[in-house]
Design a protein that fits this description.
Blueprint lengths: L5 H5 L6 E5 H10 L1 H5 L3 E6 L6 H7 L5 E4 L2 H11 L4 E5 L8 H7 L2 E4 L2 H11 L4 E7 L21 E2 H10 L2 H4 L3 E3 L10 H13 L1 H6 L2 E3 L13 H13 L3 E4 L3 H4 L3 E13 L2 E6 L8 H4 L5 E2 L8 E6 L8 E7 L8 E5 L19 E5 L5 E5 L3 H7 L9
Parallel strand pairs: 1-17, 2-3, 2-10, 3-4, 4-5, 5-6, 6-7, 6-8, 8-9, 9-10, 12-14
Antiparallel strand pairs: 1-11, 11-12, 11-16, 13-16, 14-15, 17-18
The structure holds pyridoxal-5'-phosphate.
């Protein structure tokens, strides 16, 4: 692909396309560099947010490792990281047939429950450092679908239950080597993290004193060093009292604004008095749009533009819609529509519903070039449907 810069180049990409910007990712990671260097807080990038292999490779020098949620993600990381960096895993359900492989690939395992810790400890602890995910029972998220500390949460051992287990002195509780908590979602207030740390310390100080690592999870958004002042306070609070390694694993803060979906208008028609523009993408390429009912930012939108359209996805679902948008010039078949700030939880959740192909993947590289990284095709769809080479297995 020839060198192209700026919007005019984006408009020439094959669509639908997912474009990620390496500079944006590296700039966001550089905000955390002080924490790695001066505070000794280790940064892990969570693959659940974004897992394009070449991009993870670009991130590698700026992080201490990655956090994963499954055997496949652990394998993917080790494929390009080798044994250079740290891999941490947590999932609500470890499988008995995977635990050995997982413990070979991962340095840290946070079991989600005391029962899983008890069941798998001996098979995992020869290779990995074992701890648990805790639910500090301190809620900050209103929408319970995204609240890890909701009532009857499935995520982590509730702190009151852990206190009781602690008193019982069960053998497996004594084996806890570290803890993970991830309790927030898109919060811009990192004071909530500091509050959480102090809350756990106050409730179960004997636990902190025994640990060799603490993983603070992700769930926070930040734009600069100033936003991170409470993180510094939380890290100092812990380090002044305890001798532990501290991990922080922000996802959306690193890649959220670094990704765009570029699409093309396939058709325009009127329905009950409104103009519908059908695009060659779908909410299934960015499922959180539908799940959260978010109206994504469109680069070409003009707030007081007099041409209004409902931007619609290309699948059969009536609700496959992005919303109503104004433009200063009329759209036509072939016009480009660019959805911005959709870097996180996009392709990792995308599906081929209706057999619609996945977006091509392009990197906007550090020197401003657009580089094609991946093109999906019928073979991917065929193998997903059980056909092709997999059909004979
Ligand atoms: C354990 C854990 N760590 C990190 C993250 C990343 O969160 P975010 O992308 O909101 O920073 C998540 C997201 O669900 C998570 O569950």
């Amino acid at each position: 692909m020839t060198r192209k810069n700026g919007v005019s180049a984006i408009t020439e990409l094959h669509t639908p396309a997912f474009v990620y910007d390496e500079n944006s990712i590296l700039n966001n990671l550089s905000i955390l560099s002080k924490f790695r260097e001066s505070f000794g807080c280790k940064i892990l990038f969570p693959l659940k947010t974004f897992s394009i292999a070449d991009a993870l490779d670009v991130m590698t020098p700026a992080v201490n490792g990655f956090s994963v949620s499954s055997l496949f993600e652990a394998k993917l990381v080790r494929e390009f990281l080798g044994y250079r960096g740290i891999v941490h895993i947590t999932t609500p359900g470890f499988r008995p047939d995977e635990i050995e492989d997982i413990s070979k690939l991962c340095d840290y395992i946070s079991f989600n429950s005391l029962s899983q810790l008890k069941r798998f400890y001996h098979r995992a602890a020869t290779q990995a450092k074992c701890g648990i995910r805790i639910n500090p029972q301190l809620s900050f998220v209103e929408d319970c679908r995204y609240n890890p500390c909701r009532k009857h949460s499935k995520l982590g051992v509730p702190l009151d239950q852990l206190c009781a287990a602690w008193q019982s002195k069960s053998w497996f509780v004594k084996k806890i080597n570290g803890i993970l908590f991830h309790t927030n979602c898109e919060s811009k207030d990192i004071n909530q993290l500091l509050q959480t740390v102090k809350h756990i310390d106050k409730t179960l100080p004997e636990l902190f004193a025994k640990l060799s690592w603490i993983n603070l999870g992700g769930g926070y958004l930040f734009n600069n060093q100033d936003d991170l002042a409470p993180l510094a306070e939380a890290v100092n609070f812990i380090k002044n009292k305890y001798d532990v390694d501290i991990f922080f694993e922000p996802g959306k803060a690193i890649v959220g604004e670094a990704g765009s979906i570029v699409s093309t208008v396939l058709d325009i028609f009127s329905s009950d008095g409104k103009d519908i523009a059908v695009l060659d993408t779908t909410v299934n390429h960015m499922p959180e749009i539908f799940e959260y009912q978010i109206r994504p930012e469109v680069m070409q939108e003009s707030i007081d533009g007099k041409y209004e359209y409902i931007l619609a996805g290309t699948t059969c679902l009536a609700g496959d819609l992005f919303g109503e948008y104004q433009f200063s010039r009329p759209l036509k078949t072939g016009s480009r529509i660019i959805f911005q700030k959709v870097g996180a939880y996009t392709l990792v959740k995308a599906s081929m519903f209706n057999g619609v192909n996945l977006p091509m993947i392009y990197a906007r590289t550090q020197d401003g070039k657009f580089e094609l990284k991946k093109q999906f095709d019928y073979e991917h769809f065929l193998s997903k449907c059980g056909g092709g080479t997999y059909a004979t297995v």
